[in-house]
Design a protein that fits this description.
Distance between the termini: 52 Å
Number of helices: 14
Helix content: 40-55%
Radius of gyration: 20 Å
CATH superfamily of one domain: NAD(P)-binding Rossmann-like Domain
Number of strands: 12
CATH topology of one domain: Rossmann fold
CATH architecture of one domain: 3-Layer(aba) Sandwich
Bound molecules: nicotinamide-adenine-dinucleotide, 2'deoxy-thymidine-5'-diphospho-alpha-D-glucose
Strand order of the largest sheet: 3-2-1-4-5-6-10
Structural class: alpha/beta
Length: about 350
């Protein structure tokens, strides 16, 4: 078991990073160290998601800044004596990467490079070697592998074949992480995860966008023929896997995390409609009628599926929450948190979603 004391979480004001910080403070057995959240608060970041934790004070610290800004990153390593990095920060939405790829290269490639190089510098010993009692964990995606046919699943040995500017930028960051391990001896672990869903997810992604559109009486956009397949995982199952890797994962290794829970988008939407109708007091027939097929995403990957046997067999992780139960918890959360939703549906996001979704339906 690794001993973790001062963890730098990047992108902790976003969906998965925020859930991870909440988990560390409330559920991570045996962890009593400090957590520093470095986040640039882009359209997808919301400091309010963690305001209750911030108000408690003590072990959680928020630092506003860009992961590509070397002086900021170096100062944080020094100030908090960072021994562990858990790197979530990214531009994360495929559609946005098609509309504006530059931000993805800056944050996902240059940002990851800056963090790696600052870690290498800070963790350097006087004899030119690097400390080995530290860890840089990189969060990546199944999308780096490209698209599957009707059968099979990605394994850790599958060759990279990214198809969108988003997945290409994540693939580049994965390669840099492994290069820093092999070339400089930086202690790293890497995880590739499938589609997450759950509380605090920004409503540009399929599940929260659909829930909110149902609650607001708006159309439900389905890309192409609606038969693209994704492998869905509840966010807390992802986080427990990351926590397991931080404690027990072998340095220099990558691990797959997934739901092993494949759904065609249109089938998923039908289940989500039934749950949201029941919980929100809405007419399911009317919701089904609001499904609107729209122009497909360019280069839309057909199917993803993850083989998770390595993390299961080696580290003893497994998925805990069933899909229906996870969706119910998610719908409950969005129904209970209109204030959070109102808070993020302003500013840059509002302008973007109006331009890209509502006008084209
Ligand atoms: P998100 O878009 O909800 O949050 C990203 C966070 O990063 C935001 O708080 C944002 O402000 C911050 N950020 C962006 N650019 C930054 C910069 N230059 N400097 C500092 N902070 C910056 O993303 P998410 O869905 O929580 O994804 C987190 C990570 O998990 C990403 O690396 C993503 O590629 C990966 N991932 C996501 C999923 C998924 O289904 N959401 C699945 C697999 C992997
Ligand atoms: O697979 C992991 C990836 O999952 C992560 O790396 C990404 O950060 C995350 O955004 C997610 O990518 P996807 O592109 O799969 O997620 P998204 O929610 O955008 O879309 C899921 C599927 O639903 C995809 O096939 C496109 C489709 N879709 C999406 C939206 C937003 C629709 O049909 N309609 C929509 O309105």
């Amino acid at each position: 078991m690794r001993s973790l004391q001062n963890i730098l979480v990047t992108g902790g004001a976003g969906f998965i990073g925020g859930n991870f910080i909440r988990f560390l403070l409330e559920k991570a057995a045996g962890f009593s160290g400090r957590i520093v959240n470095l986040d640039a608060l882009t359209y997808a970041g919301n400091r309010k998601s963690l305001e209750d934790l911030e108000a408690r004070g003590g072990r959680y610290f928020f630092e506003y800044g860009d992961i590509s800004d070397r002086p900021t990153v170096e100062a944080i390593f020094e100030k908090y004596r960072i021994d562990t990095v858990v790197h979530f920060a990214a531009e994360s939405h495929v559609d946005r990467s098609i509309l504006g790829p530059e931000a993805f290269v800056k944050t996902n490639v240059m940002g990851t490079f800056t963090l790696l190089d600052a870690a290498r510098n800070y963790w350097g010993e006087s004899d030119g070697t690097l400390r080995q009692d530290v860890l840089f964990h990189h969060i990546s995606t199944d999308e780096v592998y490209g698209s599957l046919g009707e059968t099979g699943a990605f394994t850790e040995a599958t060759a990279y074949d990214p198809r969108s500017p988003y997945s290409a930028s994540k693939a580049a960051s994965d390669h840099l992480v492994m290069a820093y391990h092999h070339t400089y001896g930086l202690p790293v672990t890497l995880s590739n995860c499938s589609n997450n869903y759950g509380p605090y997810q920004f409503p540009e992604k399929l599940i929260p966008l659909s829930i909110l559109n149902m609650l607001e009486g708006k159309p439900l956009p389905v890309y192409g023929d609606g038969r693209n397949i994704r492998d869905w995982l509840y966010v807390e199952d992802h986080i427990r896997a990351v926590w397991t890797i931080l404690q027990k994962g072998r340095t220099g290794e990558k691990y797959h995390i997934g739901g092993e829970n494949e759904w065609e988008n249109i089938q998923l939407l039908r289940v989500l409609i039934d749950i949201t109708a029941k919980k929100g007091g809405l007419d399911p027939e009317k919701l089904r009628g609001s499904i609107t097929y729209v122009t497909d995403r360019p280069g839309h990957d057909r199917r993803y599926a993850m083989d998770c046997s390595k993390i299961k067999e080696e580290l003893g992780w497994k998925q805990e929450l069933g899909f229906e139960e996870g969706l119910e918890k998610t719908v409950d959360w969005y129904l209970a948190n209109p204030g959070w939703i109102a808070g993020i549906r302003t500013g840059e996001y509002r302008k973007w979603i109006e331009k890209n979704y509502e006008k084209r339906i």
